[in-house]
Amino acid sequence: xxxxxxxxxxxxxxxxxxxxxxxxxxxxxxxxxxxxxxxxxxxxxxxxxxxxxxxxxxxxxxxxxxxxxxxxxxxxxxxxxxxxxxxxxxxxxxxxxxxxxxxxxxxxxxxxxxxxxxxxxxxxxxxxxxxxxxxxxxxxxxxxxxxxxxxxxxxxxxxxxxxxxxxxxxxxxxxxxxxxxxxxxxxxxxxxxxxxxxxxxxxxxxxxxxxxxxxxxxxxxxxxxxxxxxxxxxxxxxxxxxxxxxxxxxxxxxxxxxxxxxxxxxxxxxxxxxxxxxxxxxxxxxxxxxxxxxxxxxxxxxxxxxxxxxxxxxxxxxxxxxxxxxxxxxxxxxxxxxxxxxxxxxxxxxxxxxxxxxxxxxxxxxxxxxxxxxxxxxxxxxxxxxxxxxxxxxxxxxxxxxxxxxxxxxxxxxxxxxxxxxxxxxxxxxxxxxxxxxxxxxxxxxxxxxxxxxxxxxxxxxxxxxxxxxxxxxxxxxxxxxxxxxxxxx
Length: 490
Hints:
By secondary structure, the chain is an alpha+beta fold. The chain contains 16 helices and 12 strands.
């Protein structure tokens, strides 16, 4: 990348500088790499078990290393005069990058490490010995998080995970044991924690396979049970009285959508963006599209969404041909829905998917440029973080002479943007060369560098004449009933 000197970039998101791994660690990696599967069934199972023990022991060592790194960082910052309440603010983010994890996961790993090393020696010893996995150690730490350090140590001693107390126990058994021990130690705090949990109620969305999604609500138990009971009664009524052909689960899901959005289709004046190539939209090409906030979707599904028939597996026009004869082509059928579709052309270089740059003299990114960055970056550009974009950030800060441009802009989540502004963190970029996707480099206070590369747009792998620009389209889908005068013919 132009403008980045003195560092060799090795792999997307990979650390590219810093001290080499310790010799014994490298020898261990080489030894594991040289292992080959055995030839008998018993030997293969033994290998699996030993490697699982090794993973647990490595997790225990990583916890100790994380705590040691935290102490070194805080000491260095104290020497520089950083206030005590601001020391260590970027530690979790650096741990996340080193472990190839999202920043939010890095915070949990940092908290786990501190709890194990400073307050829960028995659980840490069980991890070292392979009696607990990192996940199950996390469960014990999580269930004792509300306790004081003294009470947490007492619970750790009571559970004595290093003696084999949890051999053969599943996740639920471990959670129950830790929760019961915590309650016996400090019932008042555990009760207060349960009361506080109601303030953390929320609704989240995450992708599921086959153009589906998981809509999850974290609710107080009474409210959650009430919602599920209401949907269950509705489904039972339709199936028992009306002979509805849908399954019980389908009726409950459809009722949830209709009661929340006010329409059976679930789309009522809400923008749903789809990014696809012109070939996919107009020529029936099979190149997948991208739904921001979800990910890759099949080409036919995207065309059906823009045609107002989401969820169908048929191409636009096929359903209409099946429903109506030659003299009935214009007749509307029950359940048909009107949509209006806005198309915005985005021109990209064939084979790379690199969007055209657009400069601005404004301090803040204007709406058009923010839209470009949103499409190009899709999610937070920090390596391993796939959180939604919340901030449009200057890679080279404005106060350091950074301009408001597509090359100098990046979409970041709120936490990553704040972390990037901490002392010792820097980022730099140069003009993106033709034939490459947008890249910039993040450097942490320890001198480790990580490369961030924009994800490819649909069709980016297609080779073509570099002198020709390939068109992509935004499809902004709304329910037509809100603006019928803007309706466009299919």
